[in-house]
Amino acid sequence: MTTVPTDLQTQLQTLQATGVDAIATAPTLEALEALRVSYLGKKGELSKVLGGMGKLSAEERPHIGALANTVKDALQGGLEARKAALESEKIQAQLAAETLDVTMPGVYTPQGRIHPINSIIDQVVDIFVGLGYTVATGPEIETDYYNFEALNFLPDHPARDMQDTLYLPNGDLMRTHTSNVQIRYMQEHEPPLRVVATGRCYRRDTVDATHAAVFHQLEFFAIDKGITFADLKGTVKAFIQALYGDVAIRMRPSFFPFTEPSAEVDVQWQGRWLEVLGCGMIDPNVLKAVGYDPEVYSGFAGGIGIERFAMVQYQIDDIRRLYSSDLKFLRQF
Questions:
Q1: CA torsion sign, 251 to 223 to 138 to 291?
Q2: Which of 42, 117, 147, 176 could lock 142 by a disulfide, CB 3.0 to 4.6 Å apart?
Q3: Is residue 325 within 8 Å of 120, Cβ to Cβ?
Q4: Residue 142 forms beta bridges with which residues?
């Protein structure tokens, strides 16, 4: 019987010993994969050793082949065992890092509050929706036509001046009221209409205790056959009483280009009268601008200053407090 060459046998035994030790101490799955390729890959250490089997005789090859399989099984078994151990360690480490102590007290997060302006808007819209009105919206950047011309503003009306209106370089402007929604809505719908719209408005106004350059307004209007000023007065009274209860109100004659006759509504606030609402019967020229026949249809419209309603409801003495971001002030609501 031919003796197995000592050099190949020694190489295989050495390979098994060093490989098993290296695999057993592999620190990561990545390092373990590198060892697998290094020992068992196509160009790995085992393949290099077995490359010398071509020089063996037919009697010698079975002995070296059997030893090679033993070495391969030992290395493969070590790889599988170490992989299972590393994966288990990884899972345990992840569990330890993500474990929550449910007995620890939670982090306190203070509850948010609705800003007075948003609160008033929600209340007013709810009242008008309860009266059968539809909610509509419109753009804050507007053209002269929808903001002025279609609302019966004459070309030389003071509101068109730069000192009152914020104009943009392209000739558009920041809407000065939410009445632009009235024109846009009427162009797309036929009477009867009952609509309420709210949003920001912009004017070059001197900021003081009751005025702001950026403010919120709510527009309401109704158009149908046979609508009179008595319907407007009844709507205004029902709305204010729904919001404030039995408070003193008064209507004063006024003028707006888009209503005729027109009136301003005041409520008694801290011992004095505060203007909160402008209204009137929609001017026939406005009806004609959207294609309505003023001989058939009539309607009323009104604009509400949201900030001033908030001042009345929450007894705020200065409109600027609504935009101060003072937490001591806002936490009261």
A1: negative
A2: 147
A3: no
A4: 173
The confidence score (pLDDT) of residue 159 equals: 64
Helix 229-244 with 306-314: angle, nearest 10 deg: 40
| pLDDT tier for residue 199 given thresholds of 50, 70 and 90 | very high
pLDDT digits (tens, 9 = 90+) for 159-190: 666 558 888 999 899 998 999 999 999 999 99
CA distance linking residue 333 with residue 327, whole number of Å? 10
pTM for the model: 0.64
Are 214 and 200 spatial neighbours (Cβ–Cβ below 8 Å)? yes
Structure tokens at 146: 């929808």
Q: Please give the backbone phi and psi of residue 244, each rounded to the nearest 5 degrees, phi first.
A: -115, -10
What residue has token string 């994969």? Answer: 33
- pLDDT for res 6: 61
Lookup: tokens for 160:
């068109």
Tokens 């992989």, residue located: 83
Total number of residues shown for the chain:
333
Between CA 71 and CA 76 the distance in angstroms is 9
3-state secondary structure the chain: CCCCCHHHHHHHHHHHHHHHHHHHCCCCHHHHHHHHHHHHCCCCHHHHHHHHHHHCCCCCHHHHHHHHHHHHHHHHHHHHHHHHHHHHHHHHHHHHHHCCCCCCCCCCCCCCCCCHHHHHHHHHHHHHHHCCCEEECCCCEECHHHHCHHHCCCCCCHHHCCCCCCECCCCCEECCCCHHHHHHHHHHCCCCEEEEEEEEEECCCCCECCECCEEEEEEEEEEECCCCHHHHHHHHHHHHHHHHCCCCEEEEEEEECCEEEEEEEEEEECCEEEEEEEEEEECHHHHHHCCCCCCCCEEEEEEEEHHHHHHHHHCCCCHHHHHCCCHHHHCCC
Please indicate whether residue 31 or residue 101 has the higher confidence score (pLDDT): 31
Q: How would you list the strands of the sheet with 298-305, edge to edge?
A: 134-136, 193-202, 214-224, 298-305, 272-282, 259-269, 249-256
Contact 273, 250 (CB under 8 A): yes
- Which tokens hold the place of 290? 């959207």
* 85 closest CA partner among 31, 157, 142: 31
